[in-house]
Amino acid sequence: MALVNRKFVLASRPQGPAGPENFRLIEEPVRSPGEGEVLVRNRFLSLDPYMRGRMNAGKSYAPPQPVGEVMIGGTVGEVIAARRDGFEVGDLVVGMGGWQEYSLSDGKALRKIPQPGIAIEAWLGPVGMPGVTAWYGITRIIAPKPGETVVVSAATGAVGTVAGQLAKLAGARVIGIAGGPAKCRYAVEELGYDACIDHRAADFAARLADAADKGIDGVFENVGGEPLNRCMGMLNTFARIAICGLVASGYDGSPTPLSNVGPVLVSRATMQGFIVSDHMNIWPQALEELARHVAASRIRWRETIAEGIEAAPAAFFEMLKGGNFGKQLVRLT
Amino acid sequence: MALVNRKFVLASRPQGPAGPENFRLIEEPVRSPGEGEVLVRNRFLSLDPYMRGRMNAGKSYAPPQPVGEVMIGGTVGEVIAARRDGFEVGDLVVGMGGWQEYSLSDGKALRKIPQPGIAIEAWLGPVGMPGVTAWYGITRIIAPKPGETVVVSAATGAVGTVAGQLAKLAGARVIGIAGGPAKCRYAVEELGYDACIDHRAADFAARLADAADKGIDGVFENVGGEPLNRCMGMLNTFARIAICGLVASGYDGSPTPLSNVGPVLVSRATMQGFIVSDHMNIWPQALEELARHVAASRIRWRETIAEGIEAAPAAFFEMLKGGNFGKQLVRLT
């Protein structure tokens, strides 16, 4: 087995804005599995905003990514050698293989893909961590009632795409917020949002107020910043705000101010931050429901695929700026 | 019955800061109760921060106080004439009698004071709306576990006093925030707070960080502003922030900014605004528990009493500035 693995390690923690110089590409021979080990050829790597937080040393919701080790990341791949019961060559698995082409592990964190009929990379998107994140925020925090108005920021991102469609399936009126007319058009025409407002538009605030003319009952927040401030000013009584991400400003260590917390009191609203890895118990139910929705095309999605491991850093930073469209993946092998 | 009632009506809505000129004192003869009516001589009027919000025309959690009508307010008093089954002369009752010496009503909103052995005015404080507010925020939102750290702002106010002692009874470490050394000393020595920090002290932030050296699990917030911002920076995982009031800045229509909403995500915290009148179903249980605690001196409290209805406006604005110590009352008759 003269295979060579290429992997990105975190070379240094960002001082100021993060960039490709914080990563280093390493080549090394692939070791054969020992007793109890499984070797996976990773087909797709998922790039996600949480990774930016892990690059920092400071307090976040997870331990920092160690410097010098392979970057954390979700992967789908194929078992190519196995010395562990329960795995066979050819098994398709999803796991945290990291930013690398091959991963060797004890297999405990690998899940065999349970269901045919769904594109393999969907298990990193709508039927993976982003989908379960959306499912938790919508079903367990916002819990929209039919006719309520739910706003979803980053509306066409990997998480927002699923959040918006789950809110629609619950009978809510769903307003997306996205960057640029193409994403907004896609949200309405393909994903079924009732409206989608371009946060770059000069008249963003007026258009959001117009679309949410009955007020806002739920906010699925991925971004923070001015759009969230605007939503806060339109909350209905007992509104629920699920804080899933604050990509706009948080990762470089800068604070994410809220211009007015008053509506939390006036509207008796609930604002709840959540991380789906705190709620492992809901994954089986969430994945089962999401897989059914995706297989039946009730949840649609799209992806941006970067080609080859060497493309990962640039694709990652482009995604953080909103340059991707849908789920950001890297095709590895 | 040649009784004369003196009452304050809202004369005008505040333009800019509110002041005594927004109220007008009116004298009028007391009408005898008609069939089905109850006449109460009010002994004590409760002054509470929520009244400031009612003076505004804008959206708040309740309809505005109508201009020209008697100001809303909780009262305890004595039935002096009754033409309604269930009430007799001499009954002590608690209700929303308003800023006036006598109130005539159909009695439906009057509750007979169920328990002797507690000072009558306690039914406006620890065994009244402020107490139930504290009970809801502590037991239903923060739900402190033994050993957790809970911060209570306006720690010696009518609500904070009870919130802090309920948190102590739940086994939490309780840190108060109050204005001035006398209130802080009282909080620790009389109410049993583990620490109380003077928000006017130059080294407030350092002292709060020192007192909360294990981080903060619960915040019972009455005030907002810089102390809340400081608490946000010290949240532990799964912290709960009960927003009961934002007296610091909210009532004149100015926003209450939060310097960083990021900790809600990082700590997966929940921030919940609440108004106790949304939760009438919990009042019987809360009052029963509070009455037991007060009767047994497990909940202690103190009051500032202004003498006579004519003193109400000045006492009200003094309270909004934090000039009172404990529950602010007006002795009416």
Describe the structure.
Two copies of one chain form a homodimer. With 333 residues, the first copy, chain A, is α/β, with parallel strands linked by helices. Chain A has two domains: 4-125 and 302-331, Medium-chain alcohol dehydrogenases, catalytic domain (Quinone Oxidoreductase, Chain A, domain 1), CATH 3.90.180.10; 129-277, Rossmann fold. Chain A contains nine helices and 15 strands. In chain A, strands 3, 4, 5, 6, 7, 14 and 15 form a seven-stranded mixed β-sheet that branches. The longest helix of chain A is centred in the middle third of the chain and has 14 residues, at 129-142. The first copy, chain A, is globular and about 65 Å long.
Supply the helix-strand structural class of chain A.
alpha/beta
The CATH topology of the largest domain in chain A is Quinone Oxidoreductase, Chain A, domain 1
Mean pLDDT of chain A: 94
Largest contact between chains: A-B, 33 and 33 residues
Helix count, DSSP H or I runs of 4 or more residues of chain A: 9
- Sheet-strand content of chain A, in percent, reads 25-35%
CATH H level of the largest domain in chain A: which superfamily?
Answer: Medium-chain alcohol dehydrogenases, catalytic domain
CATH class of the largest domain in chain A: Alpha Beta
The rounded distance between the terminal residues' Cα atoms of chain A is 16 Å
User: Please, what is the oligomeric state?
Assistant: homodimer
Radius of gyration of chain A, whole Å: 20 Å
- Secondary structure: helix percent of chain A: 10-25%
Low-confidence spans of chain A: pLDDT under 50, at least 5 residues? none
Count of individual domains of chain A = 2
Largest sheet of chain A: 7 strands, mixed
H/E series of chain A: EEEHEEEEHEHEHEHEHEHEHEHE
What's the total count of β strands of chain A?
Answer: 15
